[in-house]
Every structure is written in C-alpha cells, then in structure tokens.
Amino acid sequence: MEARRVFHYGMAKVKPTPFRFQPGKIVGGKYVVQRFLGSGYEGEVYAVVERATEIRRAAKFYYRERDPLGTNAIAYARKLDALRHCPILLQYLHQEVVRVKRLPVTVVVSELVEGVKLSEFLAHEQPLSTFEALHVLYVLVKGITPIHARGEYHGDVHDENIMIRRRGIGFDLKLLDFFDLGKPGRSKIRKDVLNIVEVFHSIVGGRDKYAEQPQVVKNIIRGLKDSLILERFRSAGDIQRHLETLEWNERRLEPRNE
User: Which residue, 189, 44, 60, 198, is CA-closest to 118?
Assistant: First the structure.
C-alpha cells in the first residue's frame, strides 16, 4: 500500500526484536510453525499446528518490548471475545505464555482461516475487474459494519492484515488482527474508514492506475482526500449502503456514474 495510515496513540516507539520463526520450528513445546501470516505493531501472527492434536491454528506472538506485562494481549482477547459474532474476525480460542529463547512470551491462539494475505493476492493475481474490486470492498465493509455498529473500531485495516480467497464467483475475507488505540469513539471509526478506502485504492491499482478508473471507483476513493471521504462515509456501514444502492447499466453491466 502506498500511504498506509497507522495510528498509535501514546505508544512508546521501542523497536521490538522480531521472532522470525521458520517453518518447522517448535515453540513452547506445543506448537509447530507452519508459515508466517503477518505482523503488526504488537507482534507477529503465524499458522501453527498443535502437536498433541495436529489441529491448525493462528497464533499471535506478542513482542515483549511492546507488551511486557501481557496487558495488550488481555485487551485483545477480550475484544475478540466481545466481537465474536462478527464473522470477519478470527474466533478467539485461548491465551497462554510460552518460552522463546528462555523468555516468557504471550501468545493468543485463534482459529486459522484459509487464503493468502491481500497484499500477496494483489501481487500475483491478474488485475481485478471493477466489479470484482467492488465485490471485495463490499465483503470487507459488510464484515466491519457490525463492529462499527457496536461503537467499536478495528484500528489496523491494511492489505497485510486481510486474508482473502476466491470462493466460487466471490471472495471470502478475514481480518487477521486489530489494534487497540484506546477508548472507542467516532474519530477511530472514521480512521477505519480512511484505511478501508486506502485498501480499495490498492485493490484497483493504486496511484498509477487511479486516473483511468471509472467514476464509480473515484466516487469512493475521492482522491484519497480525508475530508471528501468523510464527507460521504462516516462508517463502514455508509460504504456498504452506498454499494448496495449503486445503479447498474443493464446493457453494459457497469455501474452508472453518480
């Protein structure tokens, strides 16, 4: 993504020591690392296999420098549990402390979903049609709408944090992680909106392809100008309703210009 917005309120800018677990590594005596899924400000997420059950899971390992007391991990687990009815989020399973290089590390274990990171998908797939790009955006905002409807926010929407896979003629999406920016509020929901629009901007090809986009795309991206985006969209639900009320040209199967 060209200009990813990340908002970290009052967090100490301490450079963490990355884990860089390799496939096959046994962590905590219980988990075998399969592959790296992604990383964020607080830690790294891996696909792992439980040695005892051979069940595949997603495990988020927290950087000790960012969460020395495990308080962020507890808040993350509680938020996942509170939003467990939002299917775009990973379903929380349990939390524990494991030893990595003899040091305690907090890990939050969740369900594992199939697919690849959106950034990888966009790098290897043929360019999506306008209809496909709008459909991916629709699945994303439809998943985030119930989070915003509860007055909550995601805090870390970007193309490295979204898992995607084709399913028939559509797409399945899951959000790998979210970030605790503090007390929920309208400003944080609106920052989610700006990040969602940036993701859509990446999906349609970014800055290099923006000029050639149809008006239906530009009516959403609005030149990536925050004031223009928030003038029209105050939450994911606003984008969802916008997409659901697009008028289509039945002869050309393209959205009519607004």
Answer: 198
Q: Are residues 130 and 251 in the same domain?
A: yes
Per-residue pLDDT of 28-87, as tens digits, reads 999 999 999 888 788 899 999 999 999 999 999 999 998 888 888 898 888 888 888 998
Q: What is the CATH number of the domain that holds 67?
A: 3.30.200.20
Distance CA(139)–CA(95), nearest Å, equals: 29
Taking the CB of residue 125, how many other CB atoms lie within 10 A of it? 12
Q: What is the pTM of this model?
A: 0.83
Looking at the structure, tell me whether residues 251 and 177 fall in a common domain. yes
Which domain covers residue 238, as residue numbers? 116-255
State which of 63, 95, 110 marks the end of a domain: 110
Regarding whether 125 and 245 lie in a shared domain, the answer is: yes
- In three-state secondary structure terms, 27 is strand
Taking 3-state DSSP, the helix, strand and coil percentages for the chain, each rounded to the nearest 5, stand at 35, 25, 40
Q: Which helix (H) or strand (E) holds 133?
A: helix 130-149
- Edge-first strand order for the sheet with 31-39 is 26-27, 31-39, 43-50, 56-62, 103-110, 92-100
7 Cβ partners below 8 Å, 6+ apart?
155, 181, 188, 191
